[in-house]
Design goal:
Strand content: 15-25%
Shape: globular
Oligomer: single chain
CATH class: Mainly Beta
Largest sheet: 4 strands, antiparallel
Structural class: alpha+beta
Bound molecules: zinc ion
Order of helices and strands: EEEEEEEEEEEEEHHH
Number of strands: 13
Number of helices: 3
Helix content: 10-25%
CATH superfamily: SET domain
Strand order of the largest sheet: 1-4-10-9
């Protein structure tokens, strides 16, 4: 088996209370420490139907049209990070997972799938996941629209997958531009000057 991803040596796959398997810390990990680097095969979202069905859930969206999928025929340990609505890890770039806070030995490592999933372009595929993570912040249903929620944008500032972080910043800039546009002060004599030309 060829391993295409990297997992922090203090992390390991174990049985999880929430979802079959999960990734757990064997030792303490500091905030912003790199936890995993995801590798694999880059494919158009619709092409993920071409990989074996049991592997399709291990794809991760890395852009509006692309996902990163398993490069082999079996899942790797890095495919088993579970979703949580109150996660302890997030993204730097598209494929680096880092600790969002200090993590204690024994904790499960989770990220919020809203950090990586958005509406796909050029595909009819719609992402939706029922969640029972047990967090007081649980949204019950995780959708491809969740990255737009202001509360998540506050909590995960700088930890969304880079392509979503860019979308958020573009929207904020557009909004700021609209505000600035409506606030432009027109000098009183400007109309007169224009008319006189
Ligand atoms: Zn949840």
């Amino acid at each position: 088996m060829t391993i295409s991803s990297w997992l922090h040596p203090h992390l390991e796959k174990r049985n999880s209370d929430t979802e079959g398997h999960g990734i757990f810390a064997r030792a303490d990990i500091r905030k912003d420490e790199r936890l995993a680097i995801f590798g694999g095969k880059i494919m158009l979202i619709d092409d993920m139907y071409q990989i074996p069905e049991e592997l399709q859930r291990f794809t991760m969206q890395i852009e509006e049209r692309f996902v990163l999928g398993p490069s082999g025929t079996v899942a790797e340990d890095t495919d088993f990070f579970n979703h949580s609505c109150c996660p302890n890890s997030g993204f730097k770039g598209q494929v680096f997972l880092v600790a969002m806070r200090d993590i204690r030995a024994g904790e499960e490592i989770t990220f919020d799938y809203a950090m990586t999933v958005s509406e796909s372009v050029g595909s009819d595929m719609v992402f939706s996941l029922d969640c029972a993570c047990g967090s007081p912040l649980c949204r019950k249903t995780i959708t491809e629209q969740d990255w737009m929620l202001p509360a998540l944008q506050d909590r995960y500032q700088g930890y969304f997958s880079q392509y979503i972080q860019d979308k958020i910043e573009a929207r904020n800039a557009a909004r700021a531009g609209e505000l600035a546009g409506s606030d432009v002060i027109v000098p009183e004599n400007e109309t007169a000057v224009l008319l006189s030309r």
